[in-house]
Amino acid sequence: MVILLDLDGTLTDTAYSKYKELKDGKIETQTLKIPLIPGAIEFVNELKRLGHRPIIVSDSHPNYVRPIAKNLFGIEQINLTDKPNTTKTIDHLEANEELFTLFQNKDNFLMVGDSFLDIELGRRLNVRTVLTKFYSTDDVEERDGIGDDWKPLKMGPTYYAKTYADVLEIIREPLKNLLAVEAAFQGEKTGKAVRFKDFNGKDGIMAFRCLARQEGGEIDKYSKGDKYYQIENPLRGKDFLETLSLGVSNYLDEIDRYQKFKWDYFTYVSDKITTQPPNKMKEIFDLVESKHPKIKLFEWRPDVKGSLRNQPNYEERRKFIDFNLSLLDGIDYKGKNIIILDDQFTTSATAYSISTKLRAAGAKNILFIALFYLVSQVHSMDCPICKKPMAIKINRKDGNKFYSCTPPRYKGEGCGNIINIANG
Ligand SMILES: [Zn+2]
Questions:
Q1: How far is the CA of 191 from the centre of ligand 1 (A)?
Q2: Can you tell me whether residue 118 is helix, strand or coil?
Q3: Cα 409 to ligand 1 centre (Å)
Q4: Domains and CATH numbers, the chain
Q5: Residue 171 in contact with residue 110, Cβ under 8 Å?
Q6: 111 DSSP 8-state letter
Q7: Which of 80, 212, 332, 412 could serve as a FRET partner for 265 with CA atoms 20 to 30 Å apart?
Q8: pLDDT-based confidence at 16, cuts 50/70/90?
Q9: Where are the alpha helices (H) located in 269-395, listed in sequence order?
Q10: 76: closest CA among 86, 65, 87, 88?
Q11: 364 near 204, Cβ under 8 Å?
Q12: Are 85 and 98 a contacting pair, CB within 8 Å?
């Protein structure tokens, strides 16, 4: 496998503003004085020993990147990459016959880095990505956007790693490390989830988890935006629902292995009477295998008008849920530990609204699980006809993807050009 490695913060412990002049090539790089993340050299050596091809991909200056790549790691490098711009990286791959051949199958590549820009670069290359967290983030350079803690998660990395050993494990078993629902669609069982919120207070925990990515634009083929739309398809098949619920069952299995307290209720965000297909969530919920008692806890106002999706932002969505969705009466919520299943996580409004209601009713530990979360939009390619940016769209009927130069009748500014994207 070709492992594209970010340098600062991924191999070297230099993601701080005091290294800026060095990274800009303004002062001479003395490689022996560069602080490394502990284990970085052993990690790169292990990659080489296993027959992989590590390549440093860095925005920094050649005066800095070249000696580090050569003297410390003995590997090739690409500098001044201007992430997430792909031009320099693709030029490097195309200049080498072996790399170019390998790039024809995106599964031969992995992008590893600590910033959303690394993940965005990987997404634009359609390769799988690993978001690393090898150091603590106090004094970090502004330009990487680190510190805004949901931003890298929203960029939709394929994997997460806290150690080099985690990265090696991902390389060893790429399919067995996917998010739980994405893995289920590959016929694999994992208990992996994106951890959006981990609040541990004196009243109990509040945790939000997501089990698959729903892409906006370029991404690796394991992201499941097409499956998200299939949930709403009246012709969605039993096989599809079973695979989806299996992903949830596998995740619940995993938390049961590690968590000590018992969950009193397993519930879901109920369907409205008008929801299509009818029992959209209930059918999935019923198929999930769980030892925790299943129960219906929520109810929509009978006269609910409009839909959550049409609310433009967090505030409006929050108001919509607060007003229209209520807890069922006659149920003992005091001190209960509750798991909630929903289909999609976007602004977190539903998760917060529901968790707040449950807490107000006396609930203790709350675990909110969404099947999918909407990842940030990433620019695709420009239209070959009119040169305007094209968007990747998904045909809601058959799940096929296509580039669209969206014309005015669909609220775009483009010429209407469509290019189909081969599945795979
Ligand atoms: Zn066009």
A1: 42
A2: helix
A3: 14
A4: 2-172 (3.40.50.1000), 194-372 (3.40.50), 380-424 (2.20.25)
A5: yes
A6: E
A7: 212
A8: confident
A9: 280-287, 314-324, 349-360
A10: 65
A11: yes
A12: no
Give the integer Cα–Cα distance in Å for 78 and 150: 28
Segment 181-235, tens digit of pLDDT? 999 999 999 999 999 988 888 889 999 999 999 988 899 999 998 899 899 888 8
| C-alpha span between 10 and 56 (Å, rounded) | 10
124 Cα to the center of ligand 1, angstroms: 20
Going by pLDDT thresholds of 50, 70 and 90, the confidence category of residue 144 is: very low
**Strand 325-327 to strand 298-300: parallel, antiparallel, or no bridges (unpaired)?**
antiparallel
How much distance in Å is there from the Cα of 90 to the middle of ligand 1?
A: 24
The structure tokens listed for 345 are 């996580």
Ligand 1 center–CA 369 separation, angstroms: 39
Is it the case that residue 35 has pLDDT exceeding 70?
yes
Q: What is the pLDDT of residues 262-301, one digit of tens each?
A: 999 999 998 888 888 889 999 999 999 999 999 999 999 9
Tell me how far the alpha carbon of residue 85 lies from the centroid of ligand 1, in angstroms: 21
**Dist. CA 107 → ligand 1 center (Å):** 30
Please state, in angstroms and as integers, the Cα–Cα distance from residue 356 to each residue in 200, 336, 361, following that order.
Answer: 15, 14, 9
Cα of 106 from ligand 1 centre, angstroms? 27
What is the distance in A from the centroid of ligand 1 to the CA of 383? 5
pLDDT for 423 equals: 56
Q: State residue 357's pLDDT score.
A: 95
* Omega within 30 of 0 (cis) for the link into 84: yes
Dist. CA 389 → ligand 1 center (Å): 8
Separation of CA 265 and ligand 1 centre (Å): 51
Q: Hey, what are 57's tokens? A: 């991909």
| Side-by-side strand order, sheet with 391-394 | 391-394, 401-404, 418-420
The 3-class SS string of 148-209 reads CCCHHHHCCCCEEECCHHHHHHHHHCCHHHCCHHHHHCCCCCCCCCEEEEEEEECCEEEEEE
Nearest Cα to 273, choosing from 307, 316, 319, 309?
Answer: 307
374 CA → ligand 1 middle, Å: 26
Confidence of residue 143 (pLDDT cuts 50, 70, 90): very low
